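Researcher: Please translate sequence to structure tokens.
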Amino acid sequence: MTHWSRLGNNKFAELWYAKNLAYHNPDHIQECYMFLERMNAPYDEDLDYAVLFHDVVYDKDPLKEERSAQLLLKYYPERTKAAEIILATAHHNITPDMDEATRWMIRADLHGLASTHTTVINYAKIMTESMYLYNVSAKTFAEKNLDFMLKLLETAINNSFYDSDEHLQFWIDVSSGTNLTINLSNAICNK
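Model: Translation complete:
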């Protein structure tokens, strides 16, 4: 764990290592924590739990976020706020009345799209993972990814209006990364 997290060596980290996924793995969690640290996000214990558990249930079945939140509540029933934060990662929408911890979770979860380098690397990881989990071809992955990313692009643009001005550049960068991912998926679809 980074210095930002105060959970220490949590016994649930082993849940991540058992999955053997290319993207939704302990590295993704560590990168979310490193983003929060790098951005000087104020510490919030519910956010800490939300980061650790937000993708802990990641398989081919739907409602991953809901099932991750339920698993958190199974072990920590008092962490209802952390579960709510996890649920916000299902759509990544920032609303004007959203609390800051939830905004930080959404930013941390999407920060890999804020740089060209990580966007390309993560695209390859997510494609590999999706082909494995869903037993689909690269072209089918690209078609589904294209649909997802077009919706995410609209979300990122909307978030730039509803998030604080200090995070405007972040959303511009995420929009650029999303556009790059759209281009990568289009290239595979048109092959």
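Researcher: Any highlights?
Model: The chain has a mean pLDDT of 93.
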